[in-house]
Specification:
Blueprint: H1 12-36, H2 54-75
Length: 91
């Protein structure tokens, strides 16, 4: 006996693509959640609590110099160069 029944063929490629997209979406959500968490402070010995950071100090000085320097350059755009009395840098 042979039975001829219509059997729906399953589209495996479509199912695989759906599953891949689902996995990508969950992975992206997990990375977004991880980046939203605050950064944990580095551990520091208690005897160094009162010691200021040299790097932070240097960065603050550099930022101040850059902002003041850029402001002064914008306000006092010279007609002539400081190193010589010609207008060599205005070209």
């Amino acid at each position: 006996m042979v039975f001829c029944a219509e059997v729906e063929s399953k589209n495996h490629m479509k199912e695989n693509l759906r599953r891949i997209r689902e996995i990508q979406k969950t992975a992206q959500q997990q990375t977004n959640e991880e980046t939203k968490q605050p950064v944990k402070a580095l551990w520091k010995l208690s005897k160094f609590d009162s010691v200021p950071s040299r790097v932070k100090e240097q960065l603050q000085v550099l930022c101040r110099l850059l902002t003041v320097g850029l402001f002064e350059m914008a306000v006092t755009a010279p007609d002539s160069c400081d190193c010589c009395s010609r207008a060599c840098h205005t070209e």
